[in-house]
Amino acid sequence: KRVIDVVAAASALVLLAPVFAFLAMSIRLSSVGPIIFRQTRVGLQGQTFTMFKFRSMVVDAEARLAALQAERDAGNDVLFKIKDDPRITPIGKIMRRYSLDELPQFMNVLIGDMSLIGPRPPLPAEVEMYEDRVNRRLLIKPGITG
């Protein structure tokens, strides 16, 4: 499975290089901040790793999330998606619609932190809320597609 992952990820990175270049340029021209968003995720055996994505939100998205939650009085620990999230950049909306923001995860596959197919890697805060039976998903290498 690892050989297939490496060959497929390397091929995808080469074939999609023009798309990467276009998206990188679009992100750079449309908003301030880094092109690649790095986030700590939990992988195989509960080990944390840095997952890569194209940045689709404004740089201070986490601070704005706290303000939005307070404004909407979420009042609970349930993770939610905001409809028409104002933190998402215009190019970010397009990337998310077609899952193009996920393309840098092919680098995570090459590194060995992820596989092409497997459960999505959770955030550390999500793992803390898992019941024991849900921790089984950490016995499998996380993937780009689940």
Summarize this structure briefly:
By secondary structure, the chain is α+β, with helices and mostly antiparallel strands. Helix content is 42%, strand content 14%.
Please trace the helix and strand order, writing H or E for each element. Answer: HHEEHHHEHE
State the strand order across the main sheet. 1-2
Helical element count? 6
Distance between the termini: 15 Å
Helix proportion: 40-55%
Number of E-state strands: 4
Protein described:
By secondary structure, the chain is α+β, with helices and mostly antiparallel strands. The radius of gyration is 16 Å and the shape is flat. Helix content is 42%, strand content 14%. A two-stranded antiparallel ribbon has the order 1-2. Strands 3-4 form a two-stranded parallel ribbon. It has one domain (2-145). It is built from 6 helices and 4 strands, in the order ααββαααβαβ.
How is the topology of this model organized?
Layout: H1 2-15, H2 17-30, E1 36-42, E2 48-54, H3 61-72, H4 90-97, H5 105-111, E3 115-117, H6 124-129, E4 143-145
Parallel strand pairs: 3-4
Antiparallel strand pairs: 1-2
Helix pairs in contact: 1-5, 2-4
